[in-house]
Predict the structure of ABC transporter permease.
Amino acid sequence: MNATIAVITFRAMLGRRRALLLLALPLVLLVLSVVLRVTDNNDIDISADVLQRFGLATLLPLLALIAGTGVIGPEIDDGQIMYVLTKPIPRQVIVLTKLAVAIVLVAAFAVVPVLMSGIVLQGTTAGMAPAFTVGVLVGGVAYSAVFVALAVLSRNAVTIGLLYALVWETLLGNFAPGAKSASIQQWALSVVDALTSASPVKSTVDLPVAIALLVAVTAAGTLLAAYRLRSLPVASAE
């Protein structure tokens, strides 16, 4: 971790436009939860559906995409990253710092709102609120690592990330069981399923497999980003 890089990255990510993007979806989730609670449309089936489809399947990957690509992608695109690479800072430290910032942002703008939404909808019933909180957190770490790696590997990271989150996990996942099981969303849902007794929450992946895959994807994304960053030519900073 490098404190200076972390502070600069937080300042860049929390600028006016990016902050609005990070706040928009959590606010929609919270408002929806309050409306459902006030109108007594918050039975356990509806609550689980909101937390899974909106919180885990929509809010989490989109916020992780904004955070994961935003912490390093713009610096690579405009060449500013080269000034950091000329400093005596190991490339893996740069990547780990950027990843840590992305994870903190996901925790603040996805994990906390999902916890608040779960409490508004169901309180402590069936342990659903803390279960989804843990699931969104572990899923957020994996998503962040993947999207940071994408940002280092490609200038089209946002497009590729959207295709993965919206096409592979959401669209194909509803029709192809193989695609559904090979997704961070399902692995995170497996963690949720293990932590709550709410019957509507069901995952297609066994918990040990899901945990192993989450760890493997997180490690692979981090290592790949560090390796690719190491190969960027410092001379292009001129």
